Amino acid sequence: MICYRILVLFISFLFFFAPRYGQAQTPEVPEVLDAEISEYTYPYPVHYIQLQIENTACKMAYMDVLPKQNNATRPAIVLLHGKNFMGAYWRQTIKYLSGQGYRVIVPDQVGFGKSSKPSLHYSFHQLATNTRQLLDTLGVNKAVVIGHSMGGMLATRFALMYPEVVTKLILENPIGLEDYRTLVPYSTLEAAYQRELKTTEESISTYFKTYFPEWLLEYDEWVKVPAAQTRSKDYAAVALASAQTYDMIYQQPIVYELELLQMPTLLIIGQADRTVVGKALIKDKAVLARAGNYPNLGRKAVNQIRSSKLVGLPGVGHIPHLQTPEAFHKALISFIK
């Protein structure tokens, strides 16, 4: 009887205190992280390819996650991250898609995450070229491409440059559905760099909270990682790359080319999103009132793209795959299949 009671207590302990089966594990975030967040653990093994860009040697990090059950008829899926993030924030989506039988390839673009942070003339054309080189290295010639936020701008550019590769395109709350040059006052690269140098954990947290209607503790990880970089001796390089990629977004709109997309395209739009790149620089209240209206922007985009579908998620902010992963994955898999 005593042994039985001990066994029951042990099982109860495991149930209440051990991680749930299948639950994604959140890594500890060190207090300080270098430019390439070397001490931060990604959910899957990280690999690298070497690139030469503007006479500069760079390395591009990526995860290549094979499906749990191999299915040669299913295309590879490429996940492209947003500006303030890296491949790790796709953790739940990678797990879901690999469980559905898809190979999932998740790069950190040069200038982001675990990739190099060189000082370059950043362009979506160059990032798309780097991504194509990665796929060529991996022997992938067809893929479904999914882009979130800035990744949506990159995914669009990639699809325009390499339509023969992209079987389907999925844009999750992409930025760039409006031309920021017509909304946001111009800021020099030096001014943007100086703003980045002043970044703190508090300012990151304040900004990231605009992404979600309600902040949850599980989102803290995505604040802590960039905040840890601000405490590093490498932060000047991170800040400069961030300023240069802000300039890329501002100077290189894709909204005028949406009508050129040929492949089936899905837009998944959190309807509570009001993200505008450079929003803090807008002083005109009338401009602020009309900018970043994602419900309207999504409808306009669908009208521009020939073969497209819009899924609106009520009450959802800028990052559906973190806020409502089940609804996001349902829309995703329905379109992919």
Automatic annotation (TrEMBL):
An example GO CC term for this entry is: membrane
Top-level taxon in the UniProt lineage: Bacteria
* A GO term for molecular function: monoacylglycerol lipase activity
Signal sequence bounds? 1-24
Q: Which UniProt keywords apply?
A: Hydrolase, Signal
A Gene Ontology biological process in which this protein takes part is:
acylglycerol catabolic process
Q: Where is the AB hydrolase-1 domain?
A: 75-287
Cited Gene3D superfamilies? alpha/beta hydrolase
Stored PANTHER family:
HYDROLASE, PUTATIVE (AFU_ORTHOLOGUE AFUA_2G14860)-RELATED (PTHR43798:SF33), MONOACYLGLYCEROL LIPASE (PTHR43798)
* Protein name from the UniProt record: Alpha/beta hydrolase
